[in-house]
Structure formats: structure tokens, C-alpha cells
Amino acid sequence: MTRAFVRTVTGDVSAEEISFTLPHEHTSCQLWHIPSRWDYWELTSDEEIIGAELQAFSELGGTCLVDVTVPGIGRDPERLRRLSEATGLKVVMGSGWYRGAYYPAEALIDRRSVEELAEVIVAEFELGVGATGIRPGIIGEIGVDKPWVSAQEERVHRA
After folding, report:
1. The total number of structural domains that make up the chain
2. Staple 141 to which of 28, 68, 105, 111, CB 3.0 to 4.6 Å?
């Protein structure tokens, strides 16, 4: 029988090692529509501050954090691994693409088929992100920009 596991940025762990979890977090989030406010940008880019907050969560009994920051809004696999190693938290990284306004140009979402987009996601789960070897453990966060789904967003959701 296959044992249940959770895929984290430091490797697969037994599901039994996971208890109190933050299921939807962003340890970094670069949204272009946020006003240029030093406090927002400093807080979301200061690894020391984020690490201290995660350490406090860990000390209060937290064991896992799911970071659903995806390409186009600031996903950084190596940063997530550093934070995990520094705090002892199990960190699950997201895969996919958020919303149309944030699709990174290099993803070529407007030119790829559903199958090609799915191949990108599957490759991340099998091989890791780029040369890092760090694999995601969840698809998301994905969404839509408007009350309707654009053609690009539909392809991402189907992938």
C-alpha cells in the first residue's frame, strides 16, 4: 500500500508529520496593481521579517505552510527552501499561473494549447522548477480577472 505523503520544497514527507497548516499563504507576492508603498514592498521582500513570522508560527505548533505564489506574482523556489530550512516548517509550493493580468510573458500562455500548458505543470511536478530540482506540491493559486473566463484563463484552468 502506498503511504500518503506531502510534497514540500525540501522533499516528500509522510502525511503523519503534518498537523497545523496554513493552507493559503504568500511569503512573497509581487502584484503590479498594489500602490508603491514602502511598507508593503518591504514586508513582502524582506526574507528576515518573513522568516521571523514563520518561526513564530512554528513555535506555536505550526508544522506546514502552503505557499500558492506562482510564476508571474513572485514565486521563488530557492527562497521557499531557505525559509523552510531556517524555520523547520514544511513548505508546499504552488504551480500553474494566477490570472490573465499576471501571466508571465515567458509562459507563452496565449500561444500554447491546453496540452502544452499541462506538460509544463507536469514537468515541474516530475523534474522540479528549472535547475533547482524543487518540485511543487499543489496546483494553484489560479483564478480569473473578470466575472467571465478569458480564452487564456480557460486554457490554464483546463491544463
Report:
1. 1
2. 68
pLDDT the model gives residue 147? 87
Average pLDDT, the chain: 92
Q: CB-hemisphere CA count at 13 Å for 81?
A: 15
68 and 24 Cβ atoms separated by less than 8 Å: yes
Length of the chain: 159
CB 85 within 8 A of CB 137: no
pLDDT in tens, 20-40: 999 999 998 877 665 665 565
Joined together, the cell numbers standing for residue 144 give: 480569473
* Beta pairing class for 138-139 and 11-14: unpaired
Which of helix, strand or coil describes residue 21?
strand
How much is the average pLDDT of 64-79?
96
We report the CATH number of the domain holding residue 103 as 3.20.20.140
Strands (E), the chain: 5-8, 11-14, 21-25, 64-67, 90-95, 138-139
pTM of the predicted model as reported, rounded to 2 decimal places: 0.92
Burial class (CB in 10 A: 0-12, 13-18, 19+), 133: exposed
Question: Residue 46's domain spans which residues?
Answer: 5-158
Q: CA-CA distance, 110 to 119, in Å (whole number)?
A: 15
